[in-house]
Amino acid sequence: MNKHHRFQFYISLLLRHRILTVQHGEAIWRSIPCDVPYPPVTYSICLNGKIYYGAVQKSNCIVVCVDLTSESLFTKVLPLEFPLLSLTTKLTSFDGQPSFTNDAGFDLNHTGEFKLCLMDKVSLEWVVKGIHVTDWKQRVSTPFSFLGTIPSGELVFARDVLEGGRQVLLYYNRDNETLYRYEI
User: Fold this and answer.
1) How many Cα atoms sit within 13 Å of 166 on the Cβ side?
2) What's the structural domain count of the chain?
3) What pTM was computed for the model?
């Protein structure tokens, strides 16, 4: 296979999206149209019947959304100030909306601040939002990563390494600025 044919094969793989339906012992594959090639760079998350993941298209960072109800796929360009970085960008849920965080790019463990790129609930545009955890440095002495939010709106953080064979989680209530510690 020459270089030209390998490139065409690669592009055809990137453009191919299929859904498998299994019912009563029958399996049916259907294709979903996708007009632009892109390589994924983040893991995916499923929220409200939609699968989201980060990808790169040409020189733009994009979010890809597969709507499982309508079996359609669409892409949206992310803000330039929030690059998707392979291995360090995580896709999480923030107040029920998909959001990206860059573990390599935030200063949570030094200042208690980090940035999210999330979908605005009203405009459905992707925006960058700064988050500040009050007195983080005084309350937390070891590295943690942001995991997302729970339905009550509390921020959830996990210790980067196990502590005595246990996972340590922190829940931060933004309304009363309370930090709860859990060991599991």
Assistant:
1) 7
2) 2
3) 0.78
Closest to 97 measured CA to CA, from 74, 133, 65: 65
Residue-wise pLDDT tens for the chain (184 aa)? 444 333 333 344 455 666 667 778 888 777 777 777 788 889 999 999 999 999 998 889 999 998 888 888 888 999 998 988 877 888 999 988 999 988 654 556 678 888 899 998 888 899 999 888 888 888 888 888 888 999 989 999 988 778 788 899 999 999 999 999 999 8
Q: Using the 8-state DSSP alphabet, how is residue 143 labeled?
A: -
Judge if 96 and 71 occupy the same domain. Answer: yes
How far, in whole angstroms, is CA 156 from its chain's centroid?
15
> Range of 159's domain?
38-183
- For residues 103 and 19, membership in a common domain is answered with no
| Residues found in the chain | 184
**Do 160 and 74 reside in the same domain of the chain?**
yes
- Residue showing tokens 């733009």: 60
Amino acid at the residue 58: K
